[in-house]
What does this fold into?
Amino acid sequence: MGNTTFTYDVLVIGSGAAGICAALRAEREGLDVLVIDKDRYLGGTSAISGGWGWLPGNRQGVAEGDTREEAETYIKALAGPSHVPEAVATFLDEVPRAMDFFENEAGIEFHYPEMAPDYQMDTPGARKSGRAVTVAATNGRVLGRNRLRVQPYLYPYTVFGYMPEIGPDIATFIKANRSLKAFAYVTRKLTRTWAERLVFRRALVRTNGNALMTRLIAAATDAGIPMWTRTKASRILKDDNGVVTGAEIEGARTGTVQARLGVVIAAGGFSGDTELRRRHFGHDPRGDNHTTPTVGHQGDGYRLAHAAGGVMNADPHQPASWGPVTVWKNLRGQDRIFPHLRAFGLPGLIAVNRRGERFANESYSYHDFGVEMIKENAGERDTYGWIIGDRKAMHTYGIGYAKPWPLPTWYFRKVGYLTQGRTVARLAARIGVPADALRRTLDVFNEGAARGEDPAFRRGSNWFHHFKGDMEHKPNPNLAPIDKGPFYAVKIQMGDLGTYAGLSVNTRSEVLTEHGEAVPGLYAVGTSAVSVFGGGYPGYGANIGPAMVFGHQVGRDIAQHAREREARRA
It folds into this structure.
């Protein structure tokens, strides 16, 4: 297609949760909306995520007694000096409105789990349920012709192609090698997955973030919203009054999109961009000390907005939502990455530094553990640590991507993901940590773990820790001695789930200039915008919850904002 002009009311750049939610609400307001994405697939990082949304004030939480005051107290404690009360108030105001729309008008079936603890349960205002929601598993057939257009799972994070859901589903998978009932359950899930992949090229059952994006994209398809992939916005356009009027695009479609009411940037963060990481990630001054599993987060949204007058807001005390990762190459030499979002909160696993010493509570959330990992490696050239486990843990749970018995460990060792040593000393030598120090670390840990205690870091001391562990393991769901060889190690490095620093926006999600003025007609939502949580990570879905809420708000209000501009000029 040549250089053509396409005319719409609203242009949305990015097809993750933030972008599709904005498009859905704008379409419901009677607007003509176009969504574009530079990737070959729709759904972005949202489609490979856990799919949860942290949404305090939802109907389950209210019924359980959650209050606005408790949520504000909790968020403020996590944000610390980065707290922006006006942004938080807007978020909490909008949560019930957004959820009402998605449930009752967009056909999104939220699932309200009995337990989904906040990540910092010892912080005032935290609750063990009622804030994090997810989406029920979905059949890909609801997408019709778009069934294969949704971003596939991050394969190393699946169990042979099936993505277990957080909660009872994944808990059953963990027991598959210890329970005939669980084994039969897993066998049914995997058999169906493989059969569907054989017949339909991709499994029909979608879970987690893939279920969320399947439902959202299906709703957008039903609403007639065009969604163009392999199409990139290259420049934001303005009129003589400085009002954003559209964008130039290139790729599968090339030309100009005229957007009468405005442009919504929902193109993800910047953790995949070396230059921006060097500028904003303190642990990555050279741009080679961080690997992101996110999709499409190359800072496109920032560069588009910056050229139009927008600026970066780097106020959050953590510039990203951290997540330790392991990076390796498969037997064909292809790069692989595994985000450790849960694995080493399980019994019989610990994390140590380059000196063979523990440095944090392994049952922290991935974000809070990442904060400690960065602190531990301050001043070092590379940021890394090691997950350590023994035969019992490997046999029972595996270590992340390395699956447990009855699967052999040879493949995971051959590709360099897993290191094995017959003794602690042999393992220490192979991973380059002092053997005496690692032995002392294990001795101290094992003494407490046998009693179900961790005096050094209080691991296994609250509901969130237990939720990450094996709830049936006694005396503590998170602790077991590490004392049966052979011993295993997996290297962990720094990664993220999306950036918290982002485009400066006001409470209407309008992009701001360096003088704090709105760029009229330009919006940023999702990880393209600065996080409402100020660098803290409150619970499951801390990126997707605000993405959906602020996307909904922009889609609802964008026409009203345009009318206000017209009235001021009249």
About this structure: Residues 231 and 436 are 56 Å apart (CA to CA).
